[in-house]
Amino acid sequence: MTNLSKKRLAALVFGNATIAFALTLLLMRWVPLIEDTNSIVFISLYAVIAAFAALLSVLAVRAALNPHAAASIKRLDDAVDLREGALNEHTIVSITDLEGRILKVNQNFVDAFGHAPEEIEGRTVDLLYRDDDDTFEPVKTAIGNGAVWRGRQNLRTKAGDAIQVQTTILPRYDARGRMVDTISVRTDLTKALAEGAVQGRNAVVEALPDEVYIYDAATFRLKYLNRKARTRLRVGHDAVREICLLDLFSEPELLQYRSHVAPVLSGEVEVARIEIDHVTGPVEILTHISEDFSSGRTLVSVVRDISARKQAEQLKLSSVSTVSHELRTPLTSIRGALRLLESGVLGELSPDAARTVAVASRNSERLVAIVNDILVLQKLSSGELTVDLRPDDLRELLKEAAEANAGYAAQCDVEIAVEPSPWPAMALVDPDRMMQVMANLLSNAAKFSAEGSTVVLRLRDRDASWRIEVQDAGPGIPKEAQATIFDSFTQAANVNPKGHPGTGLGLTICKKIVEQHHGSIGFETDPKRGTTFYIELGKAEATGETRHIA
Questions:
Q1: pTM of the model
Q2: Which of 149, 306, 361, 532 has its CA 20 to 30 Å from the CA of residue 159?
Q3: Are 252 and 231 in contact (CB under 8 A)?
Q4: Which of the 8 DSSP states describes residue 422?
Q5: Which residues pair with 301 in a beta bridge?
Q6: What are phi and psi of 359, to 5 degrees?
Q7: Phi, psi (degrees; rounded to nearest 5) at 300
């Protein structure tokens, strides 16, 4: 028997008891009258009252025990229970009062948002809304008008993570038609949307000619490789998540990779770029970091085979180098002759002639510098110029570089200051080649710094590597020049080099030499603070080890 049937039976019993009580009172009042009334009147009155009570009892019992009514009531109760069970089983449900305070939540709410009932109940619903969600006011307006609100929301969990839900918020009314609270029914879309995005992304990325690596920013465990990357690593799709990216590198490559990815992880740059001479050929790696609802911080690296580009560059450089070889001898002769004229050994020159010879002498020196840089770059690119790496203290290297370039800085009315470093900074370097890098960076910094300013040299500890920084006080690198600053024959436009133009090859040479040291080079620039070029080199112990690298 249903709950409603039991209630009716209870009412029946209570009604019968009431009738009996009333009859008893009536009979007690009628006792004095019975003596004055004949028996026929009494019997007639009693029969009428008894018949009325019996009729009420029969009707109540029939209604309570009617099988059709009981079945109908049971079906109604079952439907209500089924609906509530379905909601609690498959959706996130919460009930909120008209002041926005949460009154009740189901277990799915607890699982999705991480708030225990005792933590969330009584608090206002705005704690669920993210700053980038724009549905709070529309929901408030709809509920205030007694309307149903439906839509997608970006909410937040107790831990602060984002959760995307499809929401329906309905007002609830009492028997008098007054709105008493609202019920919110939500479906978690986070996983479905993330999976859809992944499927859409993979469909495009699978066909790319470049290798794509997607991996966790904290553990470096792979999440996805496209077809090109799986082919290189010779792994199946199912085995990808078992691989840690760091296990794929040799020790020198690992140092380069950590230097490459560190600025991205720290937020210093949005995209990091590096070229590596891999055993399979030269590659360019572009890495950036992304953050989505389901995966958290994820690194994406695109590895591009640049063998064809390198061959074209080498062919062009070889052609230029051939011409440079032919030019160097006559240029050296011309420069020597102009110096003799300037010195006055061949006779005193008139002021106009002296000025003309001085201009010619400076231009000849610039041409000789260009030729020499081209030949150096050609040797670096072809592997003819080798480096001998051995442990050296970078503090001494910086001190020597500052002293060697102080004269040129003075010509530019600039000073070079080395920030003191209290700890030894050992790294595997070729001191001669690294001094060539420092000379290029310091001369650039001196040329572009404001007169009377200071170029700062410093060392920073970057956990697995040392960072050498050269900070100038110049106008910064224009945005349009930043992407090509390390390319050959490239110079930033719209800046004043104080009458000391360069060859456009210095930074290219620096990049080649640093890469031979298994390091990386980059820059940070700001029009208000100038530019800081930095070199990342792996740490080393003072073992006396020497490595010969072509």
A1: 0.50
A2: 149
A3: no
A4: S
A5: 213, 287
A6: -65, -45
A7: -125, 120
